[in-house]
Amino acid sequence: MSDRIRAGLLGLVLFVIAIAAWQLSADHLAAIAPTPLGVWNRGVEILSDPFYRDGPASVGIFWHLVTSLRRVLTGFLLAAVIAIPLGFLLGRLQILRWAIDPLVQILRPVSPLAWLPIGLALLQDAERTAVFVIVLSALWPILLNTIDAVRTINPTYLKLTSTLGTPLWLSITQVWLPATLPGIITGLRLSLSTSWLVIIAAEMLVGGQGIGFFVWNMWNRLDINAIVVAIILIGLTGLILDHLVSALQKTVRYD
């Protein structure tokens, strides 16, 4: 029996144990505690009609997921457009990096959700505020990984392009980008997972549509089983996003 089969069987056993422990613990908790069967039945109900529309906020789970993904991808792409060129600039110009580093170190630990009230006050729009929060979430991992990737380019390559008088655009496309892509994509992977985490909390506050709003709406209805269904969908979506970026990362390894 191969190790993969053993791992699969072990995973199945652990899954069964986890479900049994869940059921046993639910029997001793409050009446509204979710149970495996209750979550299954509610999941079948929710997924049986995921595309329905019955008003601006009363929509199927598919549209909530699409709204969240649209916000995440929009903010993620905007952050990449800002952070990657800035990372190249700061990675190459040490004096500029030293000048900006204190500001980066002050802003980087601040939770993106702390900016949400400011975004609402300035933008006066829930959709744009959600994207604004995602930009701030995604910015730092991309920026810092790009800076590190640029700083670790082999100096021999840079000296060689300088000695040969290689045009700047050719140096960027043939040396800088191939050498920094693995680091940049690592930053993209981290920022995408962080953005997916943050959008759930942000949507609980901005309302409207989105999987985070769905979770909060179900809480207001005390529909805990539906919340667990949403949590599972959030996890599966995050897993798919991570695997997509991971697959991209494997194609650009550079030595």
TrEMBL record:
PROSITE patterns membership: ABC_TM1
CC terms in the record's Gene Ontology section: plasma membrane
InterPro entries according to UniProt: MetI-like, MetI-like_sf
Keywords linked to the UniProt accession: Cell membrane, Membrane, Transmembrane, Transmembrane helix, Transport
Membrane topology of the entry: Multi-pass membrane protein
Membrane-spanning ranges: 72-91, 129-147, 168-190, 196-219, 226-245
Principal subcellular localisation of the protein: membrane
A GO BP entry: alkanesulfonate transmembrane transport
Residue ranges of every copy of the ABC transmembrane type-1 domain listed in the record: 65-245
Localization (cell): Cell membrane
Keyword Transmembrane: yes
Pfam families recorded: BPD_transp_1
Family stated for the protein in its record: Belongs to the binding-protein-dependent transport system permease family.
Protein name: ABC-type nitrate/sulfonate/bicarbonate transport system, permease component
Organism: Corynebacterium testudinoris
